[in-house]
Amino acid sequence: MNIQVKVISREISEYLWRCGQSLSTAESCTAGLVAASIAALPGASTYFRGGVVSYSNELKTQLLGVSEELLAERGAVSEDVARAMVEGAVERLGTDYAVAVTGYAGPGGGPEAPVGTIYVAAGKRGDILVRELTGDDGREENVARATLSALQILLEKLKNDFPVAEE
């Protein structure tokens, strides 16, 4: 695990533990790397409930409740789907917060976006931050960047929601 990922995961752990909040993940192109980064820390079971790796649209619908209409209209690699994945993980996995990743890590893109287009999202029901990543640095680097960015946006959301927890 990259040192930056370790440092951010540790900060996330401290926020969730101190604030008594729970977390789940919903991942596509990162294939569970965000969940693995969070669960790698001792004590993660106190706040991390689990995650869903949903490469297919069918699993996004079945496991996370992302609507078929949204997937057909916007495509799996979109801000709206990333937001819906967070909402679905919070609802279906029963957590306070969730972080989601959907995108084209490579080698190919799709009809709605070129390779390297990835959306990361984090938040709670009705209050979600989403960020678009672009640029193709190769599959491995795209996945690493997406994992780091997902953790960064989650930490940003937690800091916004719990500013006193920093002290």
Summarize the structure in words.
By secondary structure, the protein is an alpha/beta fold. The mean pLDDT is 95. Strands 2-1-3-4-5 form a 5-stranded mixed β-sheet, sandwiched between helices. It has 6 helices and 5 strands. The chain has a single domain, classed as CinA-like (Maf protein, Alpha-Beta Complex). Helix 1 runs parallel beside helix 6 (139-161). Strand 1, helix 2 (33-39) and strand 2 form a beta-alpha-beta unit. The chain has helices at residues 3-19, 33-39, 57-64, 68-74, 79-93, 139-161; strands spanning 23-27, 48-53, 97-103, 118-124, 127-133.
Task: Kindly summarize this structure in a few lines.
By secondary structure, the chain is an alpha/beta fold. It contains six helices and five strands, in the order αβαβαααβββα. It has one domain: CinA-like (Maf protein), CATH 3.90.950.
The mean pLDDT is 95
Biggest beta-sheet profile: 5 strands, mixed
SSE pattern: HEHEHHHEEEH
Strand order of the largest sheet: 2-1-3-4-5
CATH architecture: Alpha-Beta Complex
> What is the CA-atom radius of gyration, in angstroms?
15 Å
Key words describing this protein structure:
Maf protein; single chain; 167 residues; 19% strand; 46% helix; 6 helices; alpha/beta
Write the layout of secondary structure elements.
Layout: H1 3-19, E1 23-27, H2 33-39, E2 48-53, H3 57-64, H4 68-74, H5 79-93, E3 97-103, E4 118-124, E5 127-133, H6 139-161
Parallel strand pairs: 1-2, 1-3
Antiparallel strand pairs: 3-4, 4-5
